[in-house]
Fold this protein.
Amino acid sequence: MDNDTIYAPATPSGGAIAVVRISGPDAHKVLSAVFRGKQQKQQHARLYRGYIEDETGRVDDVMAACFYAPRSYTGEDMAEIYGHGGRVTIARVLSALAKNGARLADPGEFTQRAFLAGKMDLSAAGAVMELIGANSAAAADAALRQLSGGLFEKISAIQSKLTDALAIIEAGIEYPEEDIEADIQRDAMPLIESARLGAQRLADTFASGRMLGSGFGVAIVGRPNVGKSSLFNLLLDKDRAIVTAIPGTTRDVVDDVIIKHGFPVRIIDTAGIRYHADEVEKIGIERARNAAKDADLKFFVIDRSAGITQEDMQIYSALEGSRIAVLNKSDLDAKVTRDEAEKAFGCDIIEVSAATGFGRDALMDAIKLPEFGEADDVVVTNERHWQLLNTAAQSLEAAVVAFDTADLDCVTIDIKEAWDKLGEITGVTATEEIINNIFDTFCLGK
């Protein structure tokens, strides 16, 4: 990375307040060139009142603060300007900075500089964007644990065991005449196996951790006009989907998020599935099938007042995974009983009326969220981390096998490969290309 002084807006334009960040060796000099306030040297992290000026005169009435290295977010000299959020005003402030020796920052460049300065590890840096994008308390808590170094600590503990195992093995390689391979295996094997289990346990948390970002998916499926969109609106407690008596009204996937116990639940309304549809409807039906396939839970909706049709049976038999049959329109005369539905589908049955609201609590109770363990547990939420942890666990499994099938050099190769894969999570062994790719996904000003 270059040694430029960079700037970027840290807040979106159009709000009441705008924050502009400056970082680099000339950050304070750049601020002084545009800021008119107290003339003496500004103290660390203290706000000063003043004005931003360019060649035409005053641009904005602001507050400004200086941060001195290494006690700043990036570890460099930094400054921040707190002004008004109008688009024109922000544009003029940024233009003034550009004319006084700073350049616009790349996406994620502030956090990248913080990582390179040792202010945070790579897993914590990635958690910054997860915290910004969190749409639930559970997602925010998980990001905060990673930002606070929780994942780094667990990875470092696993790597420490591997370092100890390598030291034991390499001592045997160094002194082969001692013929102590049995002792080496006895001492190193528990460390390797413990590290493998630790990596696998972390990887296994991704099954639930990924839902913190995307939400626990609940797809509402069934044939046309059974009340899927009404049920969707009932769960959301608002009119989100269009509801009419005309079959096939919903022709695309519509989704929205509700929060249950601090956890995001994504409710997905799908097009009614039928086998004689026009071209546009067929596209919606295919999307409905894909949404149902990807969902963690399917609410299969049947019109209780119409009974179970052959089409209902065909649709249900095509569904996979966790399914609950929902007998809708319970406010109308029934043509199918709960017992008959249980016998036909062999799954849990919930009777509801989307029209009256009856059964909503039962539907919400049926959404069983994943267990996250104790509040301070680290949950893997990043797919790249999950893949690296799985690869590390596989390498350690190969190391265990190599003790009996190969020489000690092969064992050390597998252990070192696992150590390096774990290091890509924390940044210890990450290449420049990997680091750049991660920070390219960040927003401007972070």
The radius of gyration is 29 Å. The CA atoms of residues 28 and 79 lie 6 Å apart. The longest strand covers residues 57-67. The chain has three domains: 6-105, 124-205+378-439, 218-366.
